Amino acid sequence: MVRSSSPTRRELVTGSLAAGAVAALPSAACAADTVLDDASNLNATPVARHIVVKAGDEARTIENLRRELKDAAASNRPVAMGAARHSMGGQSLARQGTVFTFEAPRCEVDRAANLYRAGAGARWHDVIKVLDPLGLSPKVLQANNDFGVASTFSVNAHGWPVPYGPFGSTVRAFRLMLADGTIVRCARDENRELFRHVMGGYGLFGIILDLDVEMVPNTMLQPTSEPLPANTFGVRFPAVCADPSVKMAYGRLDVSRGEFFESAMITAYRPVAASGGKLPPAGSGGGVMSYLSREIYRAEVGSDWGKQFRWFMETTVGPYMDSGPVTRNSLLNWPASRLAESSSKRTDILHEYFVPPASFPAFLKACQEVIPKSGIDLLNVTLRFIEPDAESILAYAPTRRISAVMSFSQARTAEADTGMERMTRELIERIIAIGGSFYLPYRLHARPEQVTRTYPAVADFVACKRRYDPRLLFRNTLWDKWLAEPFKEKN
After folding, report:
1. Within 13 Å of residue 447, how many CA atoms lie on the same side as its CB?
2. Under a CB-based contact definition with an 8 Å cutoff, are residues 242 and 163 in contact?
3. Cα-flanking dihedrals φ and ψ of residue 388, to 5°?
4. When you count CB atoms within 10 A of the terminal residue's CB, does the N or C end of the chain come out lower?
5. Three-class SS string for the chain?
C-alpha cells in the first residue's frame, strides 16, 4: 500500500539535503525545437521542454516539479528523466515531451547508519569526492564515475567490486515523486512493490528524489594478473571472485582476428597495508597513463594490428606498469569519457550479456560464430562476476552470472545501424538459447518477443506501471518500442 508523505518544511529542507531535486527549476524551459541525444549519438530527439534541475531550495523545487508534471499531464506530454544520459536507446528521452536533466551534485554521509544520501543529480565522482576524505567508498558502482547515482539505480547497473549483486542491492531506501506529485518513501519494508519495480525500472514509475545507499571502508589494493585460455574462464573466474581476500576483479578477452575469444586474462585486487598507514587521495583518471590508454584503445578501430598491440600491452606490459597498490576509490574514479570516440563519423556502442558460468564456453562459441562474420568492429570485452538479484522485477541476473560488456565501434549511418541490429538479434537469440540474458539500457535492437523471453516478468512490470501511472505520464523510447504495444491495455 502506498503511503503518502507529507513532510514539514523543516523536513523538506533538512531531511534530504542531498536530493538531486534540491534544485531551482529555471523559469523557462528550452525552446520547443530543442533536440537532445544520449551516449549513442544516434538518438537525436526533439523535446517540447528541457528542464535542467540545479541546486536550490528543495521546497520550491518540489513545488516546481509538481507544477511541471501537472502541466505535462494536461498537455498529454510524456515525461522522462536523465542525468549524464549514458544509455544508448533513448531510455532517458521522450519525443516532444518534458525532459528533466538533474545536475545538483549533492551527497551527505550518515556514519551512524553507514549510509550516504545521494540525490538524483549526483554523479559518482561527486559521491567519491565526499566519501574519500572520510576513508569511505561506495559499496557498488559502475566501472566509471561520470554516471548519475539515481540513473544507476534506474538501470540497476552492477559494478566490479566482489562479491556483490547489482547496485540496487546496496540501496536501503529512496524517495519517489509519483505522477500525481505525491512523494513516497520506498524500502524493503515500505512500499516494497514500488521499491522492486523502480529498481531497474527505467524511470517509468516516477522521479527519484534521493537514495540512501550503503558504503564500505576505502582500502589500498594490490593487483595480480592471470592469463588463461578463454574456455577455462567460466570455471576459474567464479573461483577467484569467491576468494574472500579478493575485493575487486575483472576479466578481458582477446578480440584480435586470429585469436578471437581464444585467450583471456583475470585481474584481481587484494588488500595491502597503506604506506605510512594513510590512504592517498583518490585519483581521477588523468595524466600520462590515461592518455596512453586512450591512444592504444582508439588505435584498435579498423585495425587488427591495433587489437593485437593492445592485448600485448594489457597482458604483457600492463601488469608490470600497473603492479603497484592503488586505493579502491581510485579504481572507481575513472570517467568513461577518457576512452570515448571523438570522431563525428563514428560512435561507440555497448552490448552486455549475462551468462551462467557453466555456459561460458557456449557463449564464446556463439560470439565466434556471430560477431566476425558481421563485419562490426569489436574493440573490447570486459568480464565481471555478479551475485544473484532476487529483488528487481526485471532482473538480468536471477542466478550467478558472468557479465560480458562489449564495446563496438560503429559508423553513424543508417546502413551501419541496420547491420548492428541484425547482428544483435542473432547474438541475443544465441544467448537466450544457453540460458543467458541481455541488458536493456543499450540500443533497442532486440525484437519485443526477445525481451519477453529474456524477462518473463515484463508483463507484470507493465501492469504495475499502469496501476501507479494510469495516464502513462512517464514514458520514454524504451516504453514506446518494447512495452507500449505488446502489453497494450485492453478496453
Report:
1. 11
2. yes
3. -60, 150
4. C
5. CCCCECCCHHHHHHCCCCCCCCEECCCCCCCCCCEECCCCCCCCEECCEEEEEEECCHHHHHHHHHHHHHHHHHCCCCEEEECCCCCCCCCCCCCCCEEEEECCCCEEEECCCCEEEEECCCEHHHHHHHHHHHCEEECCCCCCCCCEHHHHHHHCCCCCECCCCCHHHHEEEEEEECCCCCEEEEECCECHHHHHHHCCCCCCCCEEEEEEEEEEECCEEEEEEEEEEHHHHHHHHHHHHHCCCCCEEEEEECCCCCCCCCEEEEEEEEEECCHHHCCCCCCCCCHHHHHHHHHHHHCCCCCHHHHHHHHHHHHHHHHHHCCCCEEHHHHHCCCHHHHCCCCCCEEEEEEEEEECHHHHHHHHHHHHHHHHHHCCEEEEEEEEEECCCCCCCCCCCCCCEEEEEEEEEEECCHHHHHHHHHHHHHHHHHHHHCCCEECCCCCCCCCHHHHHHHCCCHHHHHHHHHHHCCCCCECCHHHHHHHCCCCCCCC
Place of cell 593487483: 223
* Percentage of residues of the chain with pLDDT beyond 70: 91
How big is the CA angle at 342 (ends 337 and 348), to the nearest 5 degrees?
Answer: 70
Distances (CA, A) of 427 to 279, 363, 372, 405, 409: 44, 9, 12, 14, 17
Q: Which amino acid is at 464?
A: C
* Residue located via cell numbers 516539479: 65
- 439-489 pLDDT tens trace: 999 999 999 999 999 999 999 999 999 999 999 999 999 999 999 987 777
365, amino acid identity: K
Q: Is the dihedral of CA 24, 26, 32, 34 positive or negative?
A: negative
pLDDT interval class at 73 (50, 70, 90): very high
Distance CA 468, CA 207 (A): 13
Tens-digit pLDDT profile for residues 14-53: 333 333 333 345 434 454 579 999 999 999 999 999 999 9
Q: What is the mean pLDDT of the chain?
A: 90
Q: What angle do CA 474, 203, 195 make, to 5 degrees?
A: 115
pTM over the 0.85 mark: yes
CA distance 99 to 175: 19
Domains along the sequence of the chain with CATH = 9-217 (3.30.465.10), 220-451 (3.30.70.2520)
